[in-house]
Specification:
about 160 residues, mainly alpha, about 75% helix
Length: about 160
């Protein structure tokens, strides 16, 4: 009676590449969608903020003025929350892609691996490609904090 080996043969370099590359593409697509959500939410909230601020003027109805001042505070708070949450998902995607690249580099020791293209570009293009998703949310967070503190002082 023959025994089956408990170990299956190791995947080749090209098989590792074909396993990891689609996962990285999936994470990259998710980050693109997250950045789109971020930009859409920020443009909507900045527009709402601009409308409220441009209409700040003494009204005969005190409740309208109170609502406007409340919105000057609440819109930045909502924007900060959205920025923080979307930024966390973008960071998670970047970490997942880094882990996949690391996993690929550890498990492709074969002599033909040098003939394959990088699984996600070269280091410089990775850095440039991730600059927008990783740096844009903190810029908006700083701007919203400035607007929030300015709004708190004005009320």
């Amino acid at each position: 009676m023959t025994q089956l080996s408990s170990q299956s043969p190791a995947p080749s370099d090209i098989e590792y590449f074909r396993l990891i590359r689609p996962q990285i593409e999936h994470e990259d697509n998710l980050n693109s969608q997250r950045l789109s959500w971020f930009v859409a939410s920020q443009s909507f909230l900045f527009t709402a903020y601009a409308i409220v601020v441009s209409n700040l003027q003494p009204h005969r109805l005190p409740w309208v003025e109170q609502q406007q001042h409340l919105l000057v505070i609440l819109i930045p708070i909502v924007a900060l929350g959205a920025s923080g949450l979307i930024y966390l998902t973008i960071l998670a995607g970047a970490v997942a892609m880094r882990n996949l690249r690391r996993f690929y580099s550890i498990h492709r020791p074969g002599p033909t691996s040098g003939l394959l293209p990088p699984v996600q570009g070269y280091r410089l293009t990775q850095l440039f490609g991730q600059a927008g998703p990783l740096l844009l949310p903190p810029v908006f967070i700083v701007v919203w904090l400035i607007l929030l503190f300015h709004g708190l002082r004005g009320t």
